[in-house]
């Protein structure tokens, strides 16, 4: 679908819903819109289903664009479409876009994928010292099947938590900064990875654990990648089709049941919250943005002693 270009006045600072959006944040948003535009292009071209997710979906419905105090963009996909995206990403995304997963880049661990824009800088504190792509990003989550029986849910929840913790010990835990008990776990994880490659274990986690019920006829689907949360597990029929919604200058795919999804996740979602602050809107802590500097240049400047 043809998408509109941003008007020049988009980049001007302004008040939205009483919240002051700076010129810098407008530049960040413009790069995130480019990521969404490119993502939509690739998915449309390859007949891949996706949906706006979380605060991005809420922003589309309530604001026809960004929540004024938000700074990130999220999409979510059915498992089969997510797997298909992994297959084609290398050929479909070219510089400055980079499809980032725990298998496409060493030293990087996420249980979901990200699309990065390499000619910008955007990273969380956890990734500051990692040798990875640190461009502004689009989070790509996955809808997996959720079992109906409580006993099966509990087993799956425990298994996801254990395997995710073991995976995190590979890249996200610093031996020098943890207590005695976690040092032991760290050393045990190193013994484990001496015999089991990280890539093999991550594949097992992604394809066998998270996706265990995705090929079955479950009535509930959910985002299981970050942590087990009941408010991001929904009736599968709410994702049975897509509808295009306006998001700033773009037209993007939303789930047909977006009203029920947002109500479950946020309650009275059309009400503007009393706390209109960045803290209320953001899902990331400690995000650093430089929309005008490629991340490699940003960190070269840092090595020269320039203030970050």
Short overview:
The protein is an alpha+beta fold and 308 residues long.
N→C terminal distance: 39 Å
H and E order: EEHEHEHEEEEHHHEEEEHHEH
Number of beta strands: 13
Give the count of helical stretches: 9
Main beta sheet, described?
7 strands, mixed
Structural class by helix and strand composition = alpha+beta
Overall geometry = globular
- Radius of gyration, whole Å: 20 Å
Q: In which range does the helix fraction lie?
A: 25-40%
How does this model look, in words?
- With 308 residues, the chain is an alpha+beta fold.
- The chain has a domain at 8-143 and 239-303.
- The chain contains nine helices and 13 strands.
- Strands 3, 4, 5, 6, 8, 9 and 10 form a seven-stranded mixed beta sheet that branches. Strands 1-2 form a two-stranded antiparallel ribbon. It has a two-stranded antiparallel sheet with strand order 7-13.
- A hairpin with a 2-residue loop joins β11 (242-247) and β12 (250-255).
- The longest helix has 23 residues, at 23-45.
- The chain is globular.
- It starts with 13 loop residues before the first strand and ends in a 5-residue tail after the last helix.
SSE inventory with pairings:
Elements: E1 14-16, E2 19-21, H1 23-45, E3 51-52, H2 54-63, E4 73-78, H3 79-92, E5 97-100, E6 113-117, E7 121-124, E8 136-146, H4 150-171, H5 180-195, H6 198-210, E9 220-223, E10 233-235, E11 242-247, E12 250-255, H7 258-266, H8 278-281, E13 287-290, H9 295-303
List key phrases describing it.
alpha+beta; 39% helix; 308 residues
